[in-house]
């Protein structure tokens, strides 16, 4: 029996596309059941519909500062779709401990840095400012601390002389597209050892 996977996004959804496409492989242990956004206008929703995946949106703005109410609505929609696993794929809302605990052990995230370096935003600019020799991305289980939690995989990207945050982000994103599907497949089949791609 495959595991029902929901994907949460806020933007263009290129990682979502790769995850959905990967789940079409014969024998894959997961299947996409819902793509949800906090932004009804997110480009990723249209791309998901084009792939034949059910979509939904819970606009966070009417909830104001009431994050638990926003998240209760998200959980209601996720559970109505039968979601057993959640992939955060560029979902740009900080989640409360209550939501994370509810889904703990069943929720993955991709972050555009080599965690534990550069939690939060502007990861590529920070790596360049620090003079790092390499950057990359990390897939991890979501725990209540932001961009923390057991690492499921990492891919490294060399930094080139003259790199800009945008150029580096584009090369890291290519690696995200390899790493996230590989980590989802392993996670959904019960593997927990980290995967290191180079
Ligand atoms: C990706 O680079 C992802 O790692 C990042 O947002 C982008 C979404 O791109 N996520 C975060 O920064 C989470 N803190 P996509 O919408 O094209 O998949």
Largest sheet: 8 strands, mixed
What ligand molecules are bound, each kind once? glycinamide ribonucleotide
Helix proportion range: 25-40%
Broad CATH class of the largest domain: Alpha Beta
Number of helices: 6
CATH architecture name of the largest domain? 3-Layer(aba) Sandwich
Task: Please render the helix and strand layout as text.
Elements lengths: L2 E7 L4 H10 L6 E8 L5 H8 L4 E3 L9 H14 L4 E4 L8 H7 L3 E5 L11 H7 L4 E8 L9 E8 L6 H24 L6 E3 L1
This protein binds glycinamide ribonucleotide.
Q: How would you concisely characterize the structure shown here?
A:
The chain is α/β, with parallel strands linked by helices and 198 residues long. Helix content is 35%, strand content 23%.
Description:
It is built from six helices and eight strands. The protein has 198 residues and is α/β, with parallel strands linked by helices. Strand 7, helix 6 (165-188) and strand 8 (195-197) form a beta-alpha-beta unit. The longest helix is centred in the last third of the chain and has 24 residues, at 165-188. Helix content is 35%, strand content 23%. The protein has helices spanning 14-23, 43-50, 67-80, 97-103, 123-129, 165-188, and strands at 3-9, 30-37, 55-57, 85-88, 107-111, 134-141, 151-158, 195-197. It folds into two domains: 1-103, Rossmann fold, CATH 3.40.50; 110-198, Rossmann fold. The protein has an eight-stranded mixed beta sheet, with helices on both faces. The model has no long low-confidence stretch (mean pLDDT 98). Bound molecules: glycinamide ribonucleotide. Glycinamide ribonucleotide (GAR) is lined by residues 9, 11-15, 44, 89-90, 110-112, 137, 173, 176.
């Amino acid at each position: 029996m495959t595991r029902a996977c929901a994907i949460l996004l806020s933007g263009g959804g290129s990682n979502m596309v790769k995850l959905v496409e990967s789940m079409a492989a014969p024998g894959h242990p997961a299947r996409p059941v819902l793509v949800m956004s906090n932004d009804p206008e997110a480009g990723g929703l249209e791309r998901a519909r084009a792939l034949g995946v059910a979509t939904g949106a819970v606009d966070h703005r009417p909830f104001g500062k009431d994050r638990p109410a926003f998240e209760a609505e998200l959980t209601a929609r996720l559970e109505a779709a039968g979601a057993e696993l959640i992939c955060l794929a560029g979902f740009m809302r900080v989640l409360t401990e209550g939501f994370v605990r509810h889904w703990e052990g069943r929720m993955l995230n991709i972050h555009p840095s080599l965690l534990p370096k550069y939690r939060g935003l502007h990861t590529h600019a920070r790596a360049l400012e620090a003079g790092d020799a390499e950057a990359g991305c990390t897939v991890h289980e979501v725990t209540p601390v932001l961009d923390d939690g057991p690492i499921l995989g990492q891919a490294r990207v060399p930094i080139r002389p003259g790199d800009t945050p945008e150029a580096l982000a584009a090369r890291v994103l290519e690696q995200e597209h390899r790493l996230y599907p590989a980590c989802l497949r392993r996670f959904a089949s019960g593997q927990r050892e980290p995967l290191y791609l180079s």
